Amino acid sequence: MRNRRFVLASRPAAMPEEGNWKLVETAMPGPGEGEILVRTIWLSVDPYMRGRIAAGKGYAKGIEIGAVMGGGGVGEVVRSRHPAFKPGDIVESMAFGWQEYAVLGPAGTRKVDPAHGPIRHALGILGMPGLTAYFALFDIGRPKPGDTVVVSAASGAVGQVVGQLAKMAGCRTVAVAGSEAKLAWCRDELGYDAGVNHRTAGDLPAALAAACPGGIDIYFDNTAGLIADAAMGLVNLGARIVQCGRIAISSQPGPDIGPRFHGQFIATRCRMEGFLIFDHAHRYDEGLRRLGPWVREGKLRYREDIVEGFENTPRALIRVLSGTNFGKQLVKVADEPGR
Ligand SMILES: NC(=O)c1ccc[n+]([C@@H]2O[C@H](COP(=O)([O-])OP(=O)(O)OC[C@H]3O[C@@H](n4cnc5c(N)ncnc54)[C@H](OP(=O)(O)O)[C@@H]3O)[C@@H](O)[C@H]2O)c1
Question: What is the pTM assigned to this prediction?
């Protein structure tokens, strides 16, 4: 019995390539006292991984060259040396790493009940991205009925939830996305009121202004870069800017230089606040208690984009970083139990 894993082979200078990772085989790991051995079923690939493989300091410890690539997953317990877990349990953790079998400790490992819906939802709408949308929108965005809310990467794992929650809060929602198909889905399935294609708009500030005739009350920033520049020029008095992600600039080789908005901050007294989901770990149950019923009742829809096969995991991450994914990007590593 061998384990396959991807290790980081080199650091990308710009957009990652598959050659930045190397597939290696190791002996099957055994769980130590208090640990469990888990068979990976689903892996999540997420934009934050770009920061973990970059040179230099980020908000979390980076991945060393030669080390297994980090990442979250959902899998089945195959051996347990911890009293709270037994073989057959389904668990989710951010500590799976890109490997077919992982040894996990109890910290940050939560059981997933298959009776509550697809177990892969624990990596999306009922996991880190869904909770990010929920806490960041309500804590920082503070939506009010009638607010205009602009969401970048609007069809993505986080953005699709933000748009629907803002709509539930009585807001007018404007999607910014990178294809007509994504925008049509945002409008028809998620109820976004307007949309802008940031890849074809040409004059992006003018296109966004046309979609937001009353200005912007909340800008939920998943991208930074040119979309954020366009949004900042339109913010209203007392606007809230949720700084959630910077995928548009995370693979850029040099520093990002753009317009300066100090005057805009003074004129509108808007507030911009950075968000990091891990600060809210102690509130996950609260968030899941709200999101869970909405998902089960069909009030919240969720689109996933599934790549099949463990060996395609680097390709799946590159899809996300280049905008090819349409919905929450997952990798199906193995069949679920009973299939
Ligand atoms: N702060 C936190 O705690 C936290 C937690 C989760 C996620 N995030 C951040 O939230 C953002 C969205 O994450 P996600 O998991 O939901 O990913 P996602 O939206 O499912 O996928 C990424 C999307 O980003 C867009 N994109 C890629 N390159 C771009 C570019 N150069 N310019 C503009 N858009 C680009 C693409 O959509 P289009 O085709 O529509 O452009 C792509 O589909 C990321 O920045 C991520 O880092 C932050």
Answer: 0.97
